[in-house]
Design goal:
Blueprint: E1 38-40, E2 50-52, E3 60-64, E4 72-78, E5 100-106, E6 109-114, E7 120-121, H1 122-126, H2 136-155, E8 169-171, E9 176-177, H3 180-186, H4 192-208, H5 218-228, H6 236-248, H7 255-277
Parallel strand pairs: 1-5
Antiparallel strand pairs: 2-3, 3-4, 4-6, 5-6, 7-8, 8-9
Helix pairs in contact: 2-4, 2-6, 5-6
Length: 278
């Protein structure tokens, strides 16, 4: 059995302001209500280049290739409720979301086109354990990214996500909350904002391998305990403040470099394990 490798924590985590550095723009309709946003028919019949994929657990059925633009991803969702409120759907623009670009109603399905779906999912990182683990500061960085995304979802979009889980969080140079289109369809769930925050803290505990609300050792470990043991009703702003205290210990290293390190190391380790398995 391999020994557990915990990442060192060369991380400065002062998360950037909302909406900085996104590829979406106001001209593309980000955040704006648009009566023409939802289209009827299949995007695959248009004069656009799509490559079909075998359906994955995440529901991704195709990618779209556009010259000099990042790859877009098509996610298919079955419509079970014929009274679904399509007017809730709108484009998004936030650096910590897999941003929704377009939505199509096709037969009994919704096709969501997202601007990107990069990175490694947290579920993928978990599946590399116990030979690969994230430390307290890496986990705090990831959780702060989720919280920034949730702040936008709760306050700008006026909804709750409703499905924060390891499968729906992707780690790249930003860290993205996925499947926002389905969240719009669900709308604002009663108590949904509290559930989103609770789910984020639960992710932190899982990634740290904590039982209950126990923390690690040393100053960072104690701060991690305070973070994961936050009481019900804690706000996103309070958690971001606490996360910043954890990151402050490592302020000399650039935020962007640290996330690149996480993604690169995780992908390399994943490829190594796959090669060994084959």
């Amino acid at each position: 059995m391999g020994t557990t490798k915990a990442l060192s924590s060369p991380i400065q985590m002062n998360p950037p302001p909302y909406n900085r550095g996104t590829s979406c723009t106001a001209a593309e309709g980000g955040d704006q209500q648009d009566a023409t946003f939802v289209k009827y028919g299949s995007p695959f019949t248009m004069d656009r280049l799509f490559i079909g994929l075998d359906p994955t657990d995440g529901g991704i059925t195709a990618i779209e290739l556009i010259e000099n633009r990042p790859v877009s991803f098509v996610l298919k969702v079955k419509i079970n409720d014929r009274d679904i409120k399509l007017d809730r759907l709108r484009p998004t623009c936030h650096r910590h979301l897999a941003n929704l670009k377009e939505a199509f109603v096709c037969h009994e399905s919704l096709l969501f086109i997202y601007e990107r779906w990069d990175g490694v999912s947290l579920k993928g990182i978990q599946e590399l354990g116990p030979t690969f683990e994230l430390g307290e500061v890496e986990v705090a960085t990831i959780c702060c990214q989720i919280l920034h995304g949730l702040h936008y979802i709760h306050n700008t979009l006026g909804i709750s996500h409703g499905a924060i889980s390891e499968q729906n969080i992707y780690i790249d140079d930003n860290g993205d909350v996925g499947r926002i289109g389905e969240s719009m369809i669900r709308g604002l769930i009663h108590g949904g904002e509290v559930m989103d925050i609770s789910a984020t803290l639960n992710i932190a505990r899982k990634l740290l391998g904590l039982q209950g609300t126990s923390g690690g050792r040393g100053t960072v470990g104690l701060l991690a305990h305070d973070f994961t043991a936050a009481p019900r009703g804690v706000t996103i702003e309070q958690l971001l403040q606490l996360g910043g205290r954890i990151a402050h210990k490592y302020r000399k290293i650039k935020y962007e470099m640290s996330l690149e390190y996480i993604v690169t190391t995780t992908k390399r380790r994943s490829n190594t394990l796959q090669q060994r398995a084959s």
